[in-house]
Amino acid sequence: MKFSLAVILAVSGLLVNAQDAASAAGPGRPPLKPLVNPKALEDSINRKNLLNHAHQFLEFSKLSNNTRAFGSKGHQATLQYIKRLLDQTGAYDIEFEKFTYAYSEATSQLYVDSQSYPTKGVGYSPSGNITAPLVVVNNLGCEASDYPEAVSGQIALVQRGTCTLGQKVALSGGAGAVGTIIYNNIDAEPISGTLGSPSRPEGPYVPVAYISGLNGKAFIARIAEGNEVVANIRVQSFVEDRETSNVIATTKTGDRNNLIVAGAHSDSVPAGPGLNDDGSGSMGILEVALRLARYRVKNAVRFIWWSAEEFGLIGSEYHVEHLSDEDRQKVALYLNFDMIASPNSGYFVFDGDGDATDIPGPPGSEVIEQLYKAYFDSHNIRTGSAVFGGSSDYQPFVDVGIPSGGLMTGASGLKTAEGAQWWGGDAGVAYDVCYHLACDVVENLNVDVWERNSKAIAHSVASYALSIEGIPRDPRPPVRSLRVSKLSYEERLHLSCDHDDDII
Predict the structure, then answer these.
(1) Which of residues 197 and 446 earns the better pLDDT score?
(2) Fewer C-beta neighbours within 10 Å, C or N terminus of the chain?
(3) Residues identified as active-site
């Protein structure tokens, strides 16, 4: 029987590790854990355990009306579950990084000439039940002069674009409108929206409905034909400050001057339980962390479950902004996993060198990209490129120059014909038809893709826990403010709503 040199070396290496671990422990003490092995850690990840977590997450969502939005009972149960399982391993130092942020939620209904139309609730919209004719606003409704006198006492119909939703609604109220319907600047339904703050100086807010561009244009056409179009807007909303936490778990072994950080956000949108967005990433790194607990590492690994990502990367920004320059230098690299089980999946790797997207990550990001590409190549899986567009929790790390990378499988964007040829599934259909919706449940998960991506996470975490060769460790210049910290509330929310801005 013949054995390859690689197999002989691998087996002998495992034997040496085991012998070293036993001798290092000393007489009367338990043997040290074996040094992590990327293949062994990858092989320990399986769909059964992932799905067990998924059913738990779904049960948690039922504690708060089928959502795990940050600060809700369902979200708090998620965090406690993660901590409890990690505590049981004894392998991690665990902390809750607490912060407070304003939570807003709104639901809306729209009836036009007694027919119901789909609409999205808009955060900070006042509650109300109003009925009035529609009046079309000129241009994009970003100037007071765009609002005709006829809008007073009526409902303003205005297109999305150029200025914030909050400015349009405040100007509507300032012109005397009793309500506002904003229609999307593309035919599709909007994903979500917010007015950005509780009030604005341009005028009082009025109840808001947020609809598809297709329906908005249909209403305009009916008005242009001389018809009176009467709408009924019904809104229920509230705003409150909520305390929440990032969960941070750091291996007790390994060099903490060369930290490997892997993150995923633990919260969902208010509309649903978020099993793919981002339960899939949260559960993926949880399962990797639980299996990694069996091993020693050379470089310390830190897993972080971010809170309030869906409100604009709040948890990750808070964490990075509150790290000292010295602590930022200790982070060798960051790996992000946001939506890794989309039902109509693609396999997307973040474009570290920028050759596909013209937006490279910080130096060293290209090394991470190549590790993932090599991994998927070894399993005969084609990969597409994801751009560092700012729509997930990698952005604060990119802002301070930390090499970054990660995986994603697509959100509301449509799979191309080429993508369908590479990965199967349906061309012309969203990667995740339940993105930010109540149907993002266990059945929405593409388990084959989820398991493969979770194995890829295990491979990358184990590889970097052993060596960060190729990752620059020169001192980084200090950064006093993060890009995301300069954004308005609405701009932040846009980041968290447009994951498909990341796909090329």
Answers:
(1) 446
(2) N
(3) 309
